[in-house]
């Protein structure tokens, strides 16, 4: 299938890495359903914007229904939506815990389940989960237990989905970023954050979008956790 015929859903698509993935897909001829809590409909007939909390199953249903109604199919789902709260473990509140699970886990579960039901009808499809290299490479200065708990679960779920649906024509992969230059990180922090990587620099949002695009165009790759992290997961 040519990219011009592909339909992708991208969660957490209003800014940062999600917006970059949408831009990259559009440049390759994809049609995109973009969702985030507050997202505006752009002046582009190849994009449908769906505003809502992706942790809410009703939002996931509206996203899937919009893709089918507008474009007739779903070829790729990018589970990019995520919350990162860096706190010492004992400082996390119940509200922090609930918020992270809602987006990082519920947000994956509902939309992925509904999307795979559609993909099974076409016997083809691709799920890409955006996780974090902190799962494999914890950093003492970046307390991240909730990120590891939830995104580590997505890494494991990626492999499980890949095996469960391998004979159904549906692939599942993950992109595991290091620290990326995005609106999450103020420019004055970039030098210190870059130093946490063996390559001595932060990644660009385009690095993650290009990794997603590679995986989407690699039909023999499934169950892969692709680290785009300046060498962090390899060692230090």
UniProtKB/TrEMBL annotation:
- CDD domains (alphabetical): SDR_c
Q: Which sequence ranges form a coiled-coil region, renumbered to this chain? A: none
Q: Which GO terms describe its molecular function?
A: oxidoreductase activity
Supply the alphabetized keyword list. Answer: Oxidoreductase
What Pfam families does the database record attribute to this sequence? Answer: adh_short_C2
PANTHER family hit by this protein: OXIDOREDUCTASE, SHORT-CHAIN DEHYDROGENASE/REDUCTASE FAMILY (AFU_ORTHOLOGUE AFUA_5G02870), SHORT-CHAIN DEHYDROGENASE_REDUCTASE FAMILY PROTEIN
Q: Which family does it belong to?
A: Belongs to the short-chain dehydrogenases/reductases (SDR) family.
Q: What is this protein called?
A: Short-chain dehydrogenase/reductase SDR
Q: Which organism is it from?
A: Caballeronia temeraria
